[in-house]
Amino acid sequence: MALTVQQIVSGLRISRSEFGRIFLAAQMDVVVSGADRQPFDAVTHAGNDQQAFTEALNWAEQKQFLDAMVRGIVNDHLEDGSITAELAEEAMANGSTDPAHKAALQAMMDLSRGFDRPEIQRYGMNLGMRWTVKVLADGALKGTGILIGPNLVLTASHV
């Protein structure tokens, strides 16, 4: 993997508890002996998240489960898209022959259609999902709306 630990840390959008869960899950896939697995809190005691994530990722790299860790972060959508973009570019540069993989990469990075920066698209979709609401009346779907305040939804006139 061409990503450095600092690049990975700068792209993370993750809480300490989520990081700890993925840290253990990645070890389950790679580290055979249960005695050799360590929880996130045992590897670092740094109070700053950036420093703690850096120390833990360096430890993961030494124990050879950094790739599994990064894949878990990407699969759970806990990064800003920059890690996904780097992995996609790396796969394209290495000439991946898996047809499903190529289709996914093309859908994600189709320069001819303006999808050259998937992290921007992911960021926008993530924000949109937080603001979009489903409007129900008597348990039946009436339409959708946009959350414009803590208790205020903007809908179309027919809703």
Structural write-up:
This protein is of the alpha+beta class and 159 residues long. Helix content is 54%, strand content 13%. It has helices spanning 5-11, 16-30, 40-43, 49-62, 66-75, 82-93, 99-108, 118-131, and strands at 132-137, 140-149, 152-155. A three-stranded antiparallel beta sheet has the order 1-2-3. β1 and β2 form a beta hairpin. α2 runs parallel beside α4 and α2 packs across α5 (66-75). Residues 99-103 have low confidence and may be disordered.
Q: Determine the number of helices (DSSP H or I, runs of at least 4 residues).
A: 8
Unreliable runs: 99-103
Q: Enumerate the strands of the largest sheet in spatial order, edge to edge or round the barrel.
A: 1-2-3
Shape: elongated
Q: Work out the oligomeric state of the chains in this entry.
A: single chain
Mean pLDDT across the residues is 79
Q: What is the alpha-carbon Rg in Å?
A: 20 Å
Beta-strand portion reads: 5-15%
Number of strands: 3
Q: Which class of secondary structure composition applies to the elements?
A: alpha+beta
Any chance you could write out the topology, listing elements then pairs?
Elements: H1 5-11, H2 16-30, H3 40-43, H4 49-62, H5 66-75, H6 82-93, H7 99-108, H8 118-131, E1 132-137, E2 140-149, E3 152-155
Helix pairs in contact: 1-4, 2-4, 2-5
Relevant terms:
elongated, 159 residues, single chain, three-stranded antiparallel sheet, alpha+beta
Short description, anyone?
With 159 residues, the chain is an alpha+beta fold.
